[in-house]
Amino acid sequence: MNHLMQTLGFGSEDRNNGVSYKKYLLKKQIIEIFYKEGNKTIPKLCEITNNSVPNITNLLGELSNDGWICSFGMGHSKGGRKPTLYGINTNIGYILGIDLSRQYTRMCIFNLHNNYIGEILELNEGLSNSGNILTFLKESVDKLLNTNNIQIEQILGIGIAIPGFIDIRKGVSYSYPQLGDKPLKETFEDILNRPVFIEHDTRTIALGEKWFGLAKNITDVLFLNIGSGIGLSMILNGNLFRGHSGFSGEFGHIQMDPEGELCYCGKVGCLETVASGTAIVKRSKEIILKGKNTLISKITDNNPEKIKLKTIIDAANLGDQFAIELLEEASEYLSKGISILIHLFNPEAIIIGGEMAYADSLIKDPIQQKISKYTITLMKQDTQILVSQLKGEAALLGTLPVVMSKLFSEEFS
Ligand SMILES: [Zn+2]
Prior knowledge:
- By secondary structure, the chain is of the alpha/beta class.
- The chain has 3 domains: 3-88, Winged helix-like DNA-binding domain superfamily/Winged helix DNA-binding domain (Arc Repressor Mutant, subunit A, Orthogonal Bundle); 94-206 and 395-408, ATPase, nucleotide binding domain (Nucleotidyltransferase, domain 5, 2-Layer Sandwich); 214-389, Nucleotidyltransferase, domain 5 (2-Layer Sandwich).
- The chain has helices at 3-7, 18-37, 42-49, 53-65, 133-147, 184-192, 201-212, 272-275, 277-289, 295-299, 309-317, 321-345, 361-374, 377-381, 394-408; strands at residues 40-41, 69-74, 84-88, 94-100, 105-111, 116-123, 155-162, 166-167, 172-173, 196-200, 221-226, 230-236, 239-241, 349-353, 384-387.
- Strands 6-5-4-7-10 form a 5-stranded mixed beta sheet, sandwiched between helices. The protein has a 5-stranded mixed beta sheet with strand order 13-12-11-14-15, sandwiched between helices.
- A hairpin with a 4-residue loop joins strand 8 and strand 9.
- It is globular.
- It binds zinc ion (ZN).
- Zinc ion binds at residues 253, 263, 265, 267, 270, 272.
């Protein structure tokens, strides 16, 4: 019996009762409609769900008594009395979103109107540098709940965006053995005591963009997550594409230079070895150590160990020529890769997200110029190159549809 079924008034004794079950499904559908489309009047709900006014009025009464919904003023009228607008009660429960990365963790609480509760908790520890990752997560979640005066029981579900290879059939991570060999969902639920739903970080970014960002009305769109690595996720025909085992989108490991450097994946000259944040930072350090004069050194107090991709982007945005050149150099390889994607998928848009989105036109403009070299003109004209406006928050926001789709309807995302 899941938590949601109980709070929606569906007890274990009702399992074999078709009428109760139908009612429960309709209640879930109403909440789903409110969540996806906002507040609605009774006539509108009757139209969408194909139900009678007495039936919907009765269900709304029960949902209201249970605290799930409340009225939100009056709707429009075509004449006569204005109908009441109903929607999800803002205080009924919350979603906790966690963007768990290699080097950092971001988490935040949201209400069911998709509003942030308090501030995002940003921590400079993640999967690769936090000691015991599970203890760290538990302590961080407790801290966030305490800060916002919210009890763990008020959290309806927790969505976690996670990088690396995740086998969707077994639910395990092949990239982070420190997470154990049990399915990730079980591992996290054991320590956090709430329903947990996992999604690959780059695909969570795609969902964030699809629900809240530039991809809202686009059905064929690709997302590049450029940070320490380079990930790709795809929404094709309006649906998230995962691949047979859930490993699709390893765009960072297509070969760019057969004579290039060894990649951590075991192959040589991968795109990540020349155009990822890690590669750009490495290159900047090498040149700075040879005596290059750049704003990057000033920003990092002459300590090359402090250089991050964001430092380079900040310097570029301040006009530092060397930093701009580093981004342009990466854009050459990115353009080659992007031209392959355009030829294969003919997408309406490619959205550049992740840390690289902070570079905005400093990465978009050179990519746009250079893909002309590599892409058939007719196809290039049909694809827009965009930079995410959600920037680092896309993954966090993307955990919301991940959780809501599982709680309310599998077809939700
Ligand atoms: Zn590789």
